[in-house]
Amino acid sequence: MSLCQLLSILELFHIADGIEKARLLPRFIQVVEKNFLLIMVIMLEEVQSKPVVCVQFFLWNILDLLRYPHELLRVMDTPSITMLWTRYTLWIPLYILSVATEGVTLYQALPYIEPAALNSTHIHPPVFLMVYLPVLALGASVTIWQLLKERQQHLEKWKKKMKRK
Q1: Could you say which of 11, 20, 88, 102 is catalytic?
Q2: What is the pTM for the complete model shown?
C-alpha cells in the first residue's frame, strides 16, 4: 500500500504534462495529505491495527477506482456517461467519508504521537492537531465545492453533446 501511495506522486507529473486534465494544486494537496497520513500510520505500529485505518485505505482505493477508469476513458477519447456520472456523483460522498476518516485516524493516533513528539519537537501535538483538523475541513470544503462545480459542468457538456447527435 505504501509503495502504491508513494507512486501517486506521478499523478502530479501527469497533470503537469497535460496527460490528465485536472488542477495541480488540489491534487498536490491530496497527494501530500495522503502520504503524510500513510507515513504516520507506518511509523506508529499501534495505529496500524485500528479499524479506522482499514476503512481509510478502503475509501482511498474506492475513490481511485472511480477516478482512474474515468480518466483513462477520457484520455482514450471514449467517454462513458455512466463513468462520468459515477465519477462525479459517488465520488463526493465517498470523499467526505474519507476526510472524516482521516480526521478520526489522526485523532486516534494522537496518544501515540505525544510521547515521542514531546522530546523531539517544539510543537505540542494537540496544538498541531487543533490547527490541522480545521485546515483539513477547509480544504475538503473547497474540494467538494470544486467537485460539485465540475460535476455540473461535465454533465451539462455531456447533455449538450447528446442533443447534437
Answers
A1: 102
A2: 0.79
